[in-house]
Amino acid sequence: MTLLGRARAGWRRFATRTRPVHPETARALAERWAALPAHVQTPAQSLGRHAVGCEGTHGVFPKCNLTCTPCYHSADANKVRIDGQHTVDQVEQQMAYLEQRRGPYAHAQLIGGEVSLLPPDDHAAALQAMRAHGRSPMSMTHGDFDADYLRALVTGDDGGLRFDRVSFAAHFDMLMRGRRGAVKPRSEAELHPFRERFVQMFRELRAETGLRYYLAHNMTVTPANLDQVAETVRAVLPMGFSMMSFQPAAHVGDDRRWKESYAAVDVDAVWAQLERALGHRVPHEGIEFGDPRCNRVAFGFLVAGRWHGLIDPDDARDRAARNQFFAHFGGVAFSGTPPLLLVVKVLRVLRRHPADLPVALGWVLRTVRRAGGVRALARAARAGALGLMTFEVHSFMDAEQVGPAWELMQRGEQATDPQLRATQERLAACTYSMAHPETGQLVPACAQHSVLDLAENAQLRKLLPLTVVG
């Protein structure tokens, strides 16, 4: 090849690598948007415009060593042996299918079961398989593991880091039984030292190794702990988590662990507790993620303990900035892209849409003013009191509605019963999917746990029995 030919080939590689949106991402986003029910195709909707949705594993390690009331897993889940090779093989197959269907980049959860029951090397291999298929993985845990486990997970045999960054979502609430040191907590406050200890493990490892991390805090909410949500929010905010997610309980999974009616706890009740904790409104209308009956999310940041939203839905200028972001930057992968490469991608978008620059600058200036100005941000940054904080409420649905609604959807039928039709709408707009390469399906999480888990865990109980004979 001539020098000119090599130069042209190099330029083509550069142009391909720096294209703002991968063609497969554009395809997946368009397909997701087209499949959404009309009532969620709003200007604020991020699903199908900026995100294809979250992804999760299933059937990879259903066993857990805590008991929760309620638990979304079926009764057979804890009768399945932990097997690292099975986990890695299944993760590889599921992630390969997700990459094929949903494009080269997405956020995915390594979820069971309890992830820390996996040997550290198998846990690491599963995360590496997810990354190999363009997924940004998050390990879902109850947080009851030690610093030695975390160190073994993130470092290799040579003592060096095998991951530059890890993400964990830790579930803490008083409905969980069996945690070391808090076997049967009677209040959320009893768990605050355990929440703090979890974050401290990561802080210490970062100081020693430079490991970067993202930590989310999950909490199931029932009538038993609803009135403790506000106090929990106030306690958790300064701990070092970057997200607080709440799941109002539903009647799904092991019915032996349903201790009360959960109908009184919905997204509005939880959000009211959140606003009570912060002492002000938490606007969520600016960005939607799926069906509002399932998800309510508010993206923002903390400045010296006070939360500020990224979008003011009451400001027409912010809404216009959001609309232009979705239209021109929606398919750009802002997380998981190397910084210099991301800069080039953004510059290529701005080259085509130069009018976006003053719109973006205006949004930045308004956001800084709302947060108290540049000096307030600088003081908070110097004090280590500046950081991202996302609030989310994710509402699961009862199995008695999901089962028949899903069955009708598999037959291509629309329910005539209003409640079942609403369930079908929510399933169609689900933001959280699980891959079934064996059937060629992407299954909403509620359908997975309400319908498919029962047979799946029964089969796994035979494939991976707790006691191996012979």
Would you spell out the secondary-structure blueprint of this structure?
Elements: H1 3-17, H2 23-35, E1 54-56, E2 67-68, H3 84-102, E3 106-110, H4 120-132, E4 135-141, H5 147-154, E5 165-171, E6 176-177, H6 192-209, E7 212-221, H7 229-236, E8 243-248, H8 267-278, E9 295-303, E10 306-309, H9 316-329, H10 339-352, H11 356-370, H12 374-382, E11 386-394, H13 399-410, H14 418-428, E12 432-436, E13 441-444, H15 445-463
Parallel strand pairs: 1-3, 1-12, 3-4, 4-5, 5-7, 7-8, 8-11
Antiparallel strand pairs: 2-6, 9-10, 9-11, 12-13
Helix pairs in contact: 3-4, 4-5, 7-8, 9-11, 13-14, 13-15
Structure description:
This protein is an alpha/beta fold. The protein has two domains: 55-312 and 392-462, TIM Barrel (Alpha-Beta Barrel), CATH 3.20.20; 318-378, no CATH class. The chain is 43% helix and 16% strand. It has 15 helices and 13 strands. The protein has helices at residues 3-17, 23-35, 84-102, 120-132, 147-154, 192-209, 229-236, 267-278, 316-329, 339-352, 356-370, 374-382, 399-410, 418-428, 445-463, and strands at 54-56, 67-68, 106-110, 135-141, 165-171, 176-177, 212-221, 243-248, 295-303, 306-309, 386-394, 432-436, 441-444. The strands form two sheets. Strands 10-9-11-8-7-5-4-3-1-12-13 form an eleven-stranded mixed β-sheet. Strands 2-6 form a two-stranded antiparallel ribbon. Helix 9 crosses helix 11 (356-370), helix 13 (399-410) packs across helix 14 and helix 13 packs across helix 15. The protein is globular.
